[in-house]
Amino acid sequence: MAELLSKGQIESLLEWFDTNGVAYPWGDDPSPYKVWVSEVMLQQTVVTAAVEHFRRWIILFPDIRALAEAEEEAVLKAWEGLGYYSRARNLRKGAIYLIHEKEGALPESYRELTAVPGIGDYTARALLSLAFGLPYPVLDANVRRIGQRLLACAGWEKRDDIFLLEKLDRVIPRYTPGLFNAALMQLGQQVCRTGKPDCPSCPLLKACAARRKGLEESIPLRKKRKVKEKHTVLFLIVNKGRILMIRRSRGIGEGLWFLPGVEKSRVAGIRNYVEKQAVEAGSLPVSIHYYTSWKDYLYPEIYECRQADPVFQDKFDTPPEDRMEWVDLKNLESCPTPSAYRRILNRYLLSS
Questions:
Q1: Is 149's pLDDT higher than 70?
Q2: Contact at 8 Å (CB) between 187 and 180?
Q3: Mean pLDDT value of segment 268-277
């Protein structure tokens, strides 16, 4: 089997990284805990967003014990703006597991790492190589894209991940596995980018079959994702310096606070009811919230109400396990809220 990269090409990659590698805050002291947090943050998040969140996170939760002892709401608040909040919940669950089962330390074996809640194959490999210096190749979106171009493989299936990992395992330097993995990931971020890569700057140019065949811009194949649209009317119901909010108890928004809302096609009856309670009404500009395969148009309406009506929960079809309550406007900042809702709330506070 032909090797994916020669020793000379690997040396060129490491030299490129030594000159062009970006220093991230988790790289200054690649402790297992910092590597774990950073790798979870970087999943489905751009690096620039992860950097600032990481710095704040480490101040709030400097180690595994601090994270395990933190309240879930504080953890979700620290994660606010990164999306996919199950990642934050899993980090906390993993920390609690480590305190009870592993004396508060991340283990140094693949089997034990993948037993930790929230740690899968990729995160385990990243920890073993970046934190413990063990020769485990990693396969994130950047490394996968590089592999596809090196192999000139346009289509890609799950079994191809296994094939690429086997090829990487044959060439990963046993003396610097962490540097090798970090170099490949940053090469994908900076040079071997999606769309039009910067091939003249690539230290692996001579090894790239896609470049030789003129296919570097068409690999990987771009998948067209069908985005569905929603139209949601949000109700900012205010009473005596408080606003009505819902804390979700399950689903993708578990533990987060939301504004009451309803699909635009069903809003008439609820709007009539709320208007009867209101002494003043207004609205805010339409906002757009993207999540998974949805594009949700949010229409915020403001209602200053005479009293805190307990019947609101029934009107919005809120499940009984979800908590609907009045939140003091001064305490809104401490409530973890999806970024789209946070922008709407901040806009309201500025305008009121």
A1: yes
A2: no
A3: 90
Maximal CA-CA distance, the chain: 76
Q: Using CA atoms, how far apart are residues 227 and 296, in angstroms rounded to an integer? A: 10
Token look-up 């928004």 returns 253
Give residue 309's pLDDT band: very low, low, confident or very high (50, 70, 90). Answer: low
pLDDT at 334 (0 to 100) = 94
Please, which residues bridge with residue 298 across strands? Answer: 232, 287
Mean of pLDDT values over 290-297:
86
| Rg (the chain; Cα; Å) | 24
Q: What angle do CA 171, 158, 126 make, to 5 degrees?
A: 50
**CA distance from start to end of the chain:** 68
More confident residue, 155 or 330: 330
Place of tokens 């019947």: 311
Q: Give the integer Cα–Cα distance in Å for 44 and 195.
A: 18
Average confidence (pLDDT) over 183-209: 95
pLDDT by residue (tens digit) across 114-125? Answer: 999 999 999 999
Contacts of 171 (CB under 8 A, 6+ apart): 3, 4, 5, 10
- What is the rounded distance in angstroms from the CA atom of residue 117 to the CA atom of residue 64? 13
Which of 2, 30, 1, 16 is CA-nearest to residue 185? 16
pTM of the model: 0.90
Give catalytic residue positions: 39
